[in-house]
């Protein structure tokens, strides 16, 4: 229970830091850059708002795509997520994904097989190979790789066109929202009933998946982009970060029957995370893409 609470407090801190990064830094920068390219407010608002909404939709689209391509992995992934957020898993409780866990008869009664009964006497004769990967592992690693690529694009834009403090803040926000997610994904990959990988295999494949961050950052670093594209990419990344700072984190924070201590500590952790990011605003300057066109930034110095 103590470990469960610590995860929740870490999630609250990460949510505050991620959302503060989005609203204090990314969104203002993205809108100002779009205003440089499209001085007409209605056009700029439409461009900016569409980019934010698309960025918010992308993580959901990735999850839906994984559900279509790997339905078994999708069920296992969400079963693991619910066990992590509800704190209900016990070490002596077997975890099996979806339809494999129990049989429901026509009257709605569940019929679980005793642990000693095996469906197939020869099932234990051969060991299930970990290579090639099963649907659970593919679902986790592909989804994580696509998300990491998006993080790399956002970090690359921040470092290329903004001051170093902004770049490091965006990078830190990306790391924070990944901490709990990576731990749960590693557990999912190494669970014999789900991912079925060894610790070494899970670490190696997770590392390979994380390299997509570098790929996204390199593509942006060696590409010449104007203020309209900069603003759109920042807004897109901000929408994705906003989704990640709200949907998966707060689903886990809103547990049933919370104690007053839990509410107070979660609130303080959220405020602390947001405050630490807010300190970056002291002496903050706008990204370079807009500096060449000073009109849109007039009157917006911090």
Automatic annotation (TrEMBL):
Bias (Basic and acidic residues): 105-116
Q: What membrane topology does the UniProt entry give?
A: Multi-pass membrane protein
Task: Report if keyword Transmembrane helix is assigned.
Answer: yes
Keyword Transmembrane: yes or no?
Answer: yes
Tell me the compartments it is located in.
Membrane
Transmembrane stretches, by residue range?
A: 7-27, 47-70, 202-222, 228-249, 261-282
Would you tell me the Gene Ontology cellular component terms? Answer: plasma membrane
GO BP: intracellular monoatomic cation homeostasis; zinc ion import across plasma membrane
Gene Ontology MF term list? monoatomic cation:bicarbonate symporter activity; zinc ion transmembrane transporter activity
Q: Which UniProt keyword terms apply here?
A: Membrane, Transmembrane, Transmembrane helix
Disordered: region residues: 105-127
The Swiss-Prot or TrEMBL record describes its family as follows: Belongs to the ZIP transporter (TC 2.A.5) family.
Q: What is this protein called?
A: Uncharacterized protein
Native species: Eutreptiella gymnastica
Phylogenetic classification of the source organism: Eukaryota, Discoba, Euglenozoa, Euglenida, Spirocuta
């Amino acid at each position: 229970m103590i470990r469960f609470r610590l995860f929740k407090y870490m999630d609250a801190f990460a949510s505050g830091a991620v959302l503060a990064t989005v609203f204090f830094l990314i969104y203002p920068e993205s809108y100002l850059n779009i205003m440089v390219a499209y001085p007409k407010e209605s056009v700029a608002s439409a461009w900016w708002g569409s980019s934010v909404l698309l960025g918010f939709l992308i993580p959901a689209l990735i999850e839906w795509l994984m559900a279509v391509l790997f339905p078994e992995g999708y069920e296992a992934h969400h079963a693991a997520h619910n066990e992590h957020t509800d704190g209900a898993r016990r070490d002596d409780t077997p975890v099996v994904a979806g339809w494999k866990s129990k049989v429901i008869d026509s009257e709605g009664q569940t019929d679980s097989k005793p642990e000693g009964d095996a469906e197939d006497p020869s099932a234990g004769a051969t060991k299930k190979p970990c290579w090639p990967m099963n649907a659970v592992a593919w679902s986790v690693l592909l989804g994580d790789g696509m998300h990491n690529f998006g993080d790399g694009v956002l970090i690359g834009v921040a470092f290329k066109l903004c001051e170093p403090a902004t770049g490091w803040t965006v990078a830190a926000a990306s790391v924070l929202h990944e901490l709990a997610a990576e731990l749960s994904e590693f557990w999912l990959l190494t669970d014999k009933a789900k991912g079925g990988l060894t610790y070494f295999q899970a670490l190696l494949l997770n590392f390979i998946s994380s390299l997509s961050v570098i790929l996204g950052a390199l593509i942006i670093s060696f590409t010449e982009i104007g203020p309209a594209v900069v603003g759109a990419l920042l807004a897109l990344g901000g929408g994705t970060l906003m989704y990640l700072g709200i949907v998966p984190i707060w689903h886990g924070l809103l547990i049933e029957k919370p104690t007053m201590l839990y509410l107070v500590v979660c609130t303080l952790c959220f405020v602390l995370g947001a405050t630490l990011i807010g300190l970056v605003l002291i002496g903050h300057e706008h990204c370079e893409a807009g500096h060449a066109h000073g009109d849109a930034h007039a009157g917006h110095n911090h």
